[in-house]
Each structure stands twice: as structure tokens, then as C-alpha cells.
């Protein structure tokens, strides 16, 4: 197929594009290479993709509607995966306008382009952060998620609502994926595993928020990509059993679906750090700090719907995933 993927210089987008190219799809990759984190890492990811046949690179921002429409008109993608977004919960406290521009204006432009080009299926990144103040575990896509605790989370919830509107009004099949703490090789420098590894190897202390009592549904990148591809290939359809008297938040009479995509096995942050220390052969100096504003104490994905509908089955334990990340990190930064 001809698939347009946004955010191909990003962590998940890079891995997804590689997977699709290897199976023989043509990938039109969009990214604006913003400086939210190390641009050279993004350039290095793109350099890997450009070596592969079938990859077309486009450097634009989603907010640039005119250029985005031209890309859709020129390449006429059959399906679209929107992973480009302003990421990060903590950064949304500092620079909220970046989230409005990319996550709301940019996503609206994607929806409009998909509508007018009659795209077969739009899959887009949501986030586990939409669960916000929810405390009932595991988080279910059937739960109410009307209490976000960061603007980032609110922007992702807004994406889900916007997508439903287009599915309802224009019969555009859309599927939202709520990602749960993705990690692995070529990961993001603003994520805990990357920062912990860097500081431990440099002999610097690591900041352990919530005094190490966080729990996260750490999900290895290969498991995430497999779930995204299975979902992309499984076009959203209307739920014939949906009722407005008892509305299901995860489905609709429109061709609309929401799924959690996580490991379904939350891990305490201290255990995560312990495994990393074992892989590095070093003990971290730890600064124990209170929970940061906008954070949640735990995430835990109920992935039954994704398992039932597309056969999703995460299988990478943190002991394997962290070891693979450390191996990549040392190789990429030439550390013995």
C-alpha cells in the first residue's frame, strides 16, 4: 500500500516506517524536525529510512495546511498514520501554544486532507495521559476520560473527539491508539530510560519522582509497532450494537475505534531502574523527589479489545527491552 506516516523522524514513527518499508509498502514520511529534543538524533533516524527503497521524505509542519494538502494531492495515500505531535506532559506546562499548533491545528489539517482525498483509514496517536485523574485500574477504553491533568492530555482527548466527528459526518474510518510509555532503541532523550542511562553512564544522579512509587505500563517499541500495523490493516467499522442510551466511549455507529496499546503489565519505577543498573553494571545515585505537576502515579492498560479485534499480544519483558536499549545506546554514542 501507499501509506503516509507523520512523525517519521520521531521514535515510534521511525520504527513504524521501517516495518512498513520492509514488508513492501511505500511510505510518504512527514516531519518538521523541530528542536524539542536533539535534532541530530532525528536526522540519524531519517538517514536510516532514506537508505530503504520506497521511502519519500517530506519536511513540513502539519500546521502548514497548504503544503500538507499538496502532499496529499501529489501522493494520494491510501491510508494514513498520524504520529506527529508535540509530545511531553511536563513541557506542556511551559509551552502550551506548541500543543495547540501541532496537536489541534495540525490534526484538523490531517482530518481535512483525509476527508477530501477519501483516505481508506486514519490511525492516529492518542495517549494514556487522557486517563488523567482516573484511579480505577486497569485503564479501560470504555471508561470516561473527561478529567485530564495536563494540556498535553487534553489535546489528545480533543483529537479523539475531532476524529469521531469526521467519522460521523464523513464516514472517514478512524482509529485512535492510546500509547502507554513506549521505550526501546532510538528512543526519545526526554523519556526516563534515556535520561537515566545517560546520567548513570556519566556518573550523575538521576531524579526519581514520586519517591520511586510510580508504576508505568512500559511497552517495548516492537510490540507497539506490531499493534499499530495490525490496527492499520484492520479498518474501523461501525459498531452495530452501539446505543445512544448507553454509549460506549470506545466505539460508535460511525466507523470509529479507540484502543489502549500497552504491555498490560505495570512495573514499579524502582524495578525498572534496578534492571537498568544490572544492564549497565553500575548503581545509580538517586535524587528522590515528589510527584511533578501534571504527572499521574500509575498507568495500566486494559488491552483486551485490541487483543480480541486484531490479535495484539505484547511479549517483550523489560529485562529484554532495556538490555536492547542499552546495547543500542552504547553503540550509537560509541561507549565501551
The biggest beta sheet is recorded as: 7 strands, parallel
Side-by-side strand order of the widest sheet: 3-2-1-4-5-6-11
- State the helicity in percent bands: 25-40%
Shape field: globular
Can you give a write-up of this model?
The chain has 336 residues and is of the alpha/beta class. 40% of the residues lie in helices and 15% in strands. It has ten helices and 13 strands. It has helices at 11-22, 39-50, 65-75, 96-116, 151-170, 192-201, 221-233, 269-280, 304-310, 318-332; strands spanning 2-6, 26-30, 55-58, 79-82, 121-127, 174-179, 182-183, 206-208, 215-216, 219-220, 256-261, 267-268, 286-288. Strands 3-2-1-4-5-6-11 form a seven-stranded parallel β-sheet, with helices on both faces. Strands 7-10 form a two-stranded parallel ribbon. A two-stranded parallel ribbon has the order 8-13. Helix 1 (11-22) links the parallel strand 1 (2-6) and strand 2. Helix 1 packs parallel to helix 2 (39-50), helix 1 crosses helix 7 and helix 6 (192-201) crosses helix 8. The chain is globular, with a radius of gyration of 19 Å. The chain starts with a strand and ends with a helix. The mean pLDDT is 95.
Amino acid at each position: 500500500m501507499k501509506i503516509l506516516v507523520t512523525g517519521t523522524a520521531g521514535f515510534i514513527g521511525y520504527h513504524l516506517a521501517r516495518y512498513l518499508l520492509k514488508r513492501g509498502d511505500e511510505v510518504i514520511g512527514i516531519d518538521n524536525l523541530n528542536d524539542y529534543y536533539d535534532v541530530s538524533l532525528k536526522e540519524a533516524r531519517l538517514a536510516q529510512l532514506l537508505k530503504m527503497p520506497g521511502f519519500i521524505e517530506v519536511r513540513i509542519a502539519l500546521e502548514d495546511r497548504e503544503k500538507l494538502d499538496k502532499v496529499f494531492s501529489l501522493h494520494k495515500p491510501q491510508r494514513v498514520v498520524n504520529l506527529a505531535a508535540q509530545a511531553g506532559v511536563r513541557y506542556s506546562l511551559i509551552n502550551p501554544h506548541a500543543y495547540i499548533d501541532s496537536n489541534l491545528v495540525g490534526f484538523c489539517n490531517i482530518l481535512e486532507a483525509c476527508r477530501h482525498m477519501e483516505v481508506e483509514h486514519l490511525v492516529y496517536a492518542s495517549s494514556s495521559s487522557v486517563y488523567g485523574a482516573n484511579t480505577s485500574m486497569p485503564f479501560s477504553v470504555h471508561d470516561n476520560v473527561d478529567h485530564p491533568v495536563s494540556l498535553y492530555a487534553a489535546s489528545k482527548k480533543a483529537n479523539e473527539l475531532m476524529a469521531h466527528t469526521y467519522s460521523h459526518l464523513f464516514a472517514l474510518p478512524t482509529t485512535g491508539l492510546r500509547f502507554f510509555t513506549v521505550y526501546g532503541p532510538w528512543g526519545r532523550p526526554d523519556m526516563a530510560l534515556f535520561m537515566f542511562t545517560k546520567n548513570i553512564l556519566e556518573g550523575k544522579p538521576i531524579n526519581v519522582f514520586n519517591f520511586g512509587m510510580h508504576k508505568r505500563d512500559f511497552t517495548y517499541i516492537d510490540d507497539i509497532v506490531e499493534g499499530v500495523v495490525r490496527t492499520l490493516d484492520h479498518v474501523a467499522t461501525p459498531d452495530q450494537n452501539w446505543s445512544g442510551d448507553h454509549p460506549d466511549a470506545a466505539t460508535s455507529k460511525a466507523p470509529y475505534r479507540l484502543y489502549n496499546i500497552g504491555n498490560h503489565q505495570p512495573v514499579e519505577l524502582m524495578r525498572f531502574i534496578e534492571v537498568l543498573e544490572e544492564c549497565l553494571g553500575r548503581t545509580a545515585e538517586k535524587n528522590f523527589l515528589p510527584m511533578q505537576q501534571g504527572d499521574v502515579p500509575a498507568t495500566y492498560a486494559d488491552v483486551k479489545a485490541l487483543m480480541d479485534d486484531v490479535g495484539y499480544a505484547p511479549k517483550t519483558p523489560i529485562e529484554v527491552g532495556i538490555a536492547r536499549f542499552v546495547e543500542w545506546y552504547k553503540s550509537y554514542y560509541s561507549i565501551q
